[in-house]
User: Which sequence fits this backbone?
C-alpha cells in the first residue's frame, strides 16, 4: 500500500541543503506540514521559508544530531510542536572519503555517530508515537556505498551498511504494524558534500544526478509502497551482480581504482 503525504506531518533531518532540503520542499509542496532540522541556522531558515510558502505551519529546529541529548529533545519537541509525526526522514549524514590506511578511530566513530547512531536514536525515540498513528513511515537515506562498498570510503560505507541492516530488520519487526520502512540508496548526487573539507576527491568518473531526480524517485517509491529504492535504478543491477560474484566484483573494483589512479597520477596512498 502506498503512502500519501498530503495532510501528514513529516520530520526531515539534515534539511539545510542538498537532499534533505529538496525532500522537505517537495513534501511541503505536496501538502504536508514539514518539520526540518540541521546544524546551520541561517541555511535552515532559508529552507523553512521555502517550505512555509507551501505549508505555513511548517517549522524548524537547530539540532546537531551528533549530540545524543539533542536528538532526544528533537523527538520530544517534534511531536509536541507539530502535534504528531507521521513520516520520519533520517537524512542527516556526513561523508568520509579517506583511504583505509589513513583512517583513525576518531574519524570512524564520528561517521558512525552521525550516519548510524543518530538516526537509530531518533527512530527509537519516535517509535512509540509512530506506532499510535493510523499509518506511519520511516525513510532512511542510506547510500549505494552500503551495498557496493565504495573504495576509499570504508568508514562511510560501514556506517551506511549498519543503517541499512538496522532498517531491514526493523521493517521485519514492524511488518504487521502501521509503521513501514523505506530505505533509499542514492548514488552520486550533486550536493555540496562533493567539496566537503578533509575528504579525498570523489574517485569516480560517473556523472552525479541532481536532487530533483532523487526526490522524484523517493516520492514514486513512497506512492508505490516500496521497501527500497536505488537512484539511479540501474545500481540495483550492479548490486545483484556483486551478490552473484563477490570476488569478481572486488577484483574489478580494485582494477578500476588502479586505472583511475594511473589516469590522475595519484597513488592509493596519496
Assistant:
Amino acid at each position: 500500500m502506498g503512502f500519501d503525504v498530503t495532510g501528514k506531518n513529516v520530520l526531515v533531518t539534515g534539511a539545510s541543503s542538498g537532499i534533505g532540503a529538496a525532500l522537505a520542499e517537495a513534501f511541503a509542496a505536496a501538502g504536508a506540514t514539514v518539520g526540518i532540522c540541521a546544524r546551520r541556522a541561517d541555511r535552515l531558515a532559508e529552507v523553512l521559508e521555502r517550505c512555509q510558502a507551501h505549508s505555513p505551519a511548517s517549522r524548524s529546529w537547530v539540532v546537531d544530531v551528533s549530540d545524543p541529548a539533542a536528538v532526544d529533545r528533537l523527538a520530544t519537541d517534534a511531536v509536541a510542536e507539530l502535534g504528531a509525526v507521521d513520516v520520519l526522514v533520517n537524512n542527516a549524514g556526513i561523508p568520509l572519503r579517506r583511504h583505509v590506511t589513513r583512517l583513525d578511530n576518531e574519524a570512524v566513530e564520528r561517521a558512525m555517530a552521525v550516519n548510524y547512531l543518530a538516526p537509530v536514536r531518533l527512530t527509537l525515540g519516535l517509535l512509540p508515537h509512530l506506532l499510535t498513528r493510523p499509518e506511519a513511515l520511516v525513510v532512511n537515506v542510506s547510500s549505494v556505498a552500503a551495498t557496493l562498498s565504495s573504495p576509499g570510503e570504508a568508514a562511510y560505507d560501514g556506517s551506511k551498511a549498519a543503517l541499512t541492516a538496522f532498517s531491514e530488520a526493523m521493517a521485519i519487526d514492524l511488518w504487521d504494524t502501521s509503521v513501514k520502512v523505506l530505505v533509499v540508496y542514492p548514488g552520486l548526487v550533486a550536493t555540496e558534500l562533493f567539496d566537503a573539507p578533509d575528504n579525498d576527491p570523489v574517485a569516480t568518473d560517473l556523472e552525479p544526478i541532481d536532487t530533483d531526480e532523487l526526490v522524484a524517485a523517493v516520492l514514486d517509491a513512497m506512492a508505490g509502497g516500496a521497501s527500497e529504492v536505488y537512484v539511479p535504478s540501474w545500481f540495483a543491477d550492479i548490486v545483484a551482480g556483486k551478490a552473484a560474484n563477490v570476488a569478481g566484483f572486488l577484483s574489478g573494483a580494485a582494477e578500476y581504482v588502479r586505472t583511475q589512479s594511473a589516469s590522475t597520477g595519484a597513488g592509493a596512498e596519496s
The radius of gyration is 18 Å.
